[in-house]
């Protein structure tokens, strides 16, 4: 090969390779702590408000909230931008890197943790301590960060609680009493065992979905996830091993669809097709089933989520963060409080299957109404609201259980559930990997 | 002397301009024309590449600037079993998929080259998978390959198997399934390349060979194949680069863990898993990207060397 040819090939491959490399490029610099803006007492100025995929379904509702705010504060102007779910987080990271975060931004639990941890969000508790009482217990506390004292770094917005849905007919066919839904993880597995024994492969009990089940199932079984100092994973316990063993046995017996070990995105299709006993655990999905599979919906029963030893569910609220160095701190905080206030959240819940994180909103009679107890959607709304009232943070996924930790643990669980390694080894290796990842992310 | 040389040069240029009608410009004139393209390449290709090299020498994380760690990320990669699994899968993918994508589309192109009524339909049909969205392709193939899917149902009805074939739940089978999807999607795409190349093969060559008594098979190997060889090399290089970049097929069939226990992950899959998300390790993912780039470079040079050897 001549030298020029080699050079040409190298350059061509370099260009091709560049596109690969860009995918891992991410963000090169770090975000230093920025200085917090100051309150002036005047609610004025133009602020940006970013939401996650609310257009076009909720355009009228959101615009109505904005218009009412601008009417109340004529000096304030809200520029609303709605971003699709796909790529939302990537855009957030890119904007944070460029110092171009919106003044008020809709954050999920993990994006809140990242931006808060990097010092990019205003401490809303410090700005307005009495506002804490506005929200349901647990929702406000959820937006504190480890190692950041009593600071709260976002306003809680809407919530979607966990519930239990199941196909009444298949439940009865399996010799189970629909009036006695499982309340612990162990009982849930016992039920699944019975279902697998009777179904003959015609239907399954539940989706394996280890990523979705952990660490929640372990917490409900009383497995400690972290040590007291919260700096090491300690879930390698006999109870966790028992969980893996039971999952492995049930998987072999056909209690779960084989592919659900890897993917869980077809749960609606399977449940709607009458091939799954336990359906999706969210009130929003009950509405989907009502629209897409009316027959199955008619036989769908709703109960409180399996809570095991904890006795309550966790709370996962969407939130509104305030850009720490916003130029219009007063307008941004007032607007975030306006969006998350009781009446506005109740109105939102009429348009979507969501629940207010606002205490006054959740006390609205519509959330206590069970109707005649036969319509799954109405019952789901009441059950979800009841559970939210007692929700507590110890049922939440700990901040330290990042997506990467979850992936690493799940990989070991998948191998064990398929019988490629024994449960004891799987849990031990999962804990080792999780601790290695935790040590890396703890670097400041 | 220098003044004389300058005068001569100007005279010569003036004579040349008068003779050819072309006007001599400053030395940097061509670069002005190139500038927009060069700026784009520098900004969107070269700089990200350089940035990735720099990042690969740091322990950067998302929104957290890194410190220089030398070659630690590379040492970590070589000691990481996940890296070796992913590299092995990527190379296996290339070794299996490239020959299929070089040969099968050629055979398909020869088939649909014939000008017979209704052939346009078949050409379009073979091209359809290329324009189908990844989501649609994923759903179709999941429906075909899952344990209660089309293939397994047929197998069981015909008593070919007693237990479902784990097309999607076994790492090796998942890789094979993903390869089938890649080949299925690539057939129509590369078929169009070959149709263009076949259009340039002079019919007189075939006629002459036919007169000499050569049958269709002999004509295919002795005329068609040598005539489209440059296109085969191009298809080989392009499909090799895409085989090393495969991600979507594994993701849509095997979920976000990349098959059970992550056993079907390829290098791009691993890079994405390590680097993206709010807990992403940008530095380590960059190092993996550079290693993937080097692997691509090695195979590109290998392909070029093979083609050169063949020509000589």
Report on the structure:
Chain A: It comes from Streptomyces flavotricini. Chain A: Residues 1-24 form the signal peptide. Chain A: Keywords: Cell membrane, Lipoprotein, Membrane, Palmitate, Signal. Chain A: Residues 416-444 are annotated as: Disordered. The complex is a heterodimer of chains A (444) and B (312). Chain A is an alpha/beta fold and 444 residues long. Chain A has 2 domains: 45-160 and 315-389, D-Maltodextrin-Binding Protein, domain 2; 163-312 and 402-441, Periplasmic binding protein-like II (D-Maltodextrin-Binding Protein, domain 2). Chain A contains 19 helices and 7 strands. Chain A has helices spanning 3-23, 59-72, 88-97, 109-117, 124-127, 168-173, 185-199, 210-213, 216-220, 238-252, 267-272, 283-292, 294-298, 329-339, 342-351, 359-362, 376-389, 403-417, 423-441, and strands spanning 45-52, 76-83, 104-107, 155-159, 163-167, 300-304, 317-322. Chain A is globular. Chain B is built from 13 helices and no strands. Chain B is flat and about 95 Å long. The model of chain B has no long low-confidence stretch (mean pLDDT 88). The chains are: A alpha/beta (444), B mainly alpha (312). At the A-B interface, α1, α3, α4, α18 and α19 of A face α2, α12 and α13 of B.
